[in-house]
Amino acid sequence: MSVISTIVPLDQLLPQDRVRAGGKAWNCAQLKRAGFPVPDGVVILANATDTEAAAVTRHRWFAALPEEELFAVRSSGIDEDGKAESFAGIHETLLNVARVDLADAIRACRASACSAHAREYRRKTGLPDNAQMGVLVQRMVRASVAGVAFTVNPVSGATDEVVINASWGLGEALVSGRVDPDEYVVAKDRGDIRWSRLGEKGAGDVSRAALAPDRVRELTTIVLDIEAHYAAPQDVEWCHDGERFWIVQARPVTTAVTPSDEIEWTRANLAEVLPDLTSPQALDAFVRLLETAERRNLGPLLAPVEQLGPMVKAFYGRLYFNLSQFRHLCRMAGTPPALMLKSMGHAGAIHPGDEIATRPSLRAIAALPHLVRMVWRHRRAGAVVRRHDAEVSAYLERLRSINPHGLSDVELWSEIDRWRASGPEFMQTVLLLGGVLFHEGPIWKACAQVGFPFERLVYPQLAIGERSVSAQQAFDLVALAQTARSDPKVTAYLLDDAVNLGDVAQLRRSLAGTDFLVAFERFLDEYGHRGHYESDWALPRYHEDPSPLLQSIRLHLRQGSSDDPDKEAARQAREAADAWVAFEARLSPWQKLTVLPRVRRAVAMVKQYYVWRERVRSDLIRVVATLRRWHLVLADRFVDRGWLLRRDDYFLLHLDEVASTIRGDRSPQTLRAIVAERLAERARVAPLQMPLLMHESQLRSLIRTAGVSEMVGTADDLRGQPVSGGCVEADVVVVRDPGDFRHMRRGAILVAPATDPSWTPLFTLAAGVIVEVGGVLSHASTIAREYGLPAIANVKHATRRLRTGERVRLDANTGLIHRLESTDEGERAPLANVV
Questions:
Q1: In CA terms, which of 442, 479, 553, 645 is 20 to 30 Å from 369?
Q2: Confidence (pTM)
Q3: Architecture of the CATH domain 7-139
Q4: Digit-coded pLDDT (tens) for 488-502
């Protein structure tokens, strides 16, 4: 047999081969040389030519192996499995590869170094974009049990514990999060099993433990020896063939508990509902409101502020959630952080350790009464929502019965302050419905147990049945456009470019007596409280400026009629029914009697939560919009008295500053100076490219690089989180803010930073949706599902990497956006092809 110098047996790797073997192969070689049970193999070095790699089976190492031997083929990136970068799950691994298929498997592993996902990871972690790939070919272990082991608790950070996850069969499904494994937490000092849990492992006998206690202790000894060998905590992948353990990979643990001075902050779920620079008044109020509401809602389940900081905090005019607190909450409840991260629309990679459900802490037992109360509220969610609806209706009815212009400053402020005090209690219903994971968790588990994708089952069900108020707004807007189309007078008025759509008085004079104006006034009665970034009451509502709605109607008139909504509803109903049929086909007769009814109930509740959540949010915005009228009365008075120069200056003041001025504790002459200082601060921080995910230590460097744009490549495919299934090919239209709404075209893929309900009109024109921010709970995903649009969220820098007119294939089943040949700016028919 010939010897190829770029193909080296694993136990013969030399130090000079390290830079060409890659991290995974080098680590395995070190472990094998140190006497650890690593399967034998060969390494195709990164400098091997394609011809040499394809001729791998000619190497003499294969001569002693049976022809029917199967192999594991693993990518081994040059920068992989280091102390800071693990590349976990990013590069290719192929198992049970026959000898005749080795060349193709090696080719696939080498190609994975240049995948869009790998290049994005390299860019994010600051690694050079010159990836090289070694490949490790090992004898395939016929594993009966496999899993991962961490020599430091990856969630709690406890350094005196080993966490072992085990499942039947191969370990790939476990590492990728497709099965719920058995879990063991072992004390390092004595080897005692402190805690264990049987998971629904998805293969074999799920009622029996994958590892007996003596094997848990044996594995603990092995992985602790590996930790000692490297003198650092390790993430170890292992398997057992019925006779002995084998180590197939070891890498440094790259994630651990966040220390209190390095709290992790996220804008997920916030960036889509608040402007990039929220008004100082609303920002200060939201910090207080959300912190109080979250503390009341979660109580003793949260870590003390002095340990992990507050739940919310403002940085340079932007609001952030405390992700470290959310992770702590998952540890308390014994929930995998990955489920929470996916629902929020997490901006970072989800590490395999986040898929692990650790044992609830002792502190969780002390908080058990509070946990029981939360579970009870979820069980009674319908009653909670009905009570909330009644209270909001009564409150709004009382407010509307009062003319704020007839009240004194003190009386105006008294009502605003009353809402400020009761706001945290009103928010309890919003937070309850945001906890949809209470019902999603059992569905994830059941889907993993039978090997059925959660998204394939649940997303079609969310698209049918009762519409959310935000989706109904879109359907009602389309109906409004149809009304306009049926009247030539209305059509001519709205299509006249000389008409100022922001002049509502002129609209009412010109279209008086038309059916359209009657319907439009009815639409404003129903949705006029909404608007762009509507949570910030400093910004106008549709009833103040309906021009975005009228602009959307103008687009509909110019671009033709919409698809038949009944036809689309019928298609969605078929997809939902087919999903249930496919899911049931995976169930045993016993599971159809036991698991299926529970899953059906849970899916129905998930759908109901989404509908309720949108309605409750809309009602709260209705309150905000009503109170905005009261704020504007105060703002106008402050301007009339010369305390402020402009009405909008009022929203630069904190509510406490307004209150102290009204009470006479603050001189009105100080207000202009406060406004000038806030304007200067906003101008200073406006250029900052604030990350969606960060540690506080990053803030200093952000200020130093203010105004310096991050370099964003344009050549790669893009990847994100699928939130509404389907696939479509179309041109994209990039819409960064409402000023760009007029550029949207029927049949285009909408690309936006994020969307809130004010963007809903654009969904009536779109063939698909791509947003930079958002998760399963986001507005974009909710409306896209109900409108039957393929949608992908969490696509980093999408509005800068894609250009209007560029043609892409949006695959919302895989989360991949593939660039196609761009169309000419003039010729665009057909605009979209649904695949």
A1: 442
A2: 0.64
A3: 2-Layer Sandwich (3.30)
A4: 999 999 999 899 988
